[in-house]
From TrEMBL:
It comes from the Archaea. This is RecA-superfamily ATPase implicated in signal transduction, inactivated. InterPro entries: DUF7125, P-loop_NTPase. It comes from Halapricum desulfuricans. It holds the Pfam family DUF7125. Gene3D superfamilies: P-loop containing nucleotide triphosphate hydrolases.
Length: 235
């Protein structure tokens, strides 16, 4: 086993006695209208990453990386559930648009895609799923639980780190409890206040299996390219 894996946020690493354990599954729980991806980018700059997008196309994810200033370490972007039939591809070639392929498009099961991506891991990396919500709203609770178990085993085998971005909503995904049960670490991000010049975020760590529990609420300073803990603010 390698040493603790850095979160990319030095002040948080210190509070966690070095970072996260190899093999950990981290559930990052946050509202969709927050800068939660900034925390993912911090982790991505620490080691190679397999970035699995469940909702947005690869081009959209890449644009976000570029706007952020680029990622310093190697990464690969994959998407789930977006394969089309040959008929759909032919219509796309003829029209130059996906608009007319709706009836002929056959989407893969995103769990099958994720399983294949996880199976391909051969070395210590980050595996990021952004977001986990579509998987948590799948057809089979057992299949999702089995995929989480396989993910945990593969991460432990390769000393990797798994991060599942879990957006909050009024209607919680039916399998969210399985995500939180499987997670070794849970981070909760919320907006505390919004002012003319500033948005104040709060980070809580209610679960850290086998690691240091952080009982305080941490104030996050999220800029365009960095995330820091603001010790000057009292929550």
């Amino acid at each position: 086993m390698v040493g603790e894996l850095s979160t990319g946020i030095p002040a948080l690493d210190r509070r966690l006695d070095g970072g996260l354990y190899p093999g950990d599954i981290l559930a990052l729980v946050a509202p969709p209208a927050t800068q939660s991806q900034a925390l993912l980018y911090q982790v991505m700059n620490e080691r190679p990453t397999l970035y699995v997008s469940t909702l947005r196309p690869e081009e959209s994810v890449q644009r976000d990386f570029d706007k952020h200033g680029g990622i310093d370490v190697s990464y690969r972007i994959e998407t789930t559930g977006n394969n089309l039939t040959m008929e759909g591809e032919l219509i796309h070639e003829l029209t130059g648009s996906r608009t007319y392929t709706g009836n002929s498009a056959v989407k893969d099961d995103p769990l099958d895609d994720l399983y294949d991506f996880v199976e391909s891991i051969e070395r210590s990396i980050n595996l990021i799923v952004d977001p986990a919500n579509p998987l948590e709203r799948g057809d089979s609770r057992d299949a999702y639980n089995e995929t989480l178990s396989f993910l945990g085993a593969k991460l432990a085998e390769t000393d990797s780190l798994g991060i599942l971005l879990c957006h909050t909503s009024e209607s919680q995904p039916p399998f969210r409890d399985l995500t939180l049960i499987a997670a070794d670490v849970v981070w909760e991000v919320d907006v505390v206040s919004i002012s003319k010049d500033d948005i104040e975020y709060q980070l809580r760590v209610p679960k850290n299996r086998g690691g240091t529990i952080i009982t305080e609420d941490l104030s996050l300073d999220i800029s365009n390219r960095t995330v820091t803990i603001d010790d000057s603010r009292a929550i």
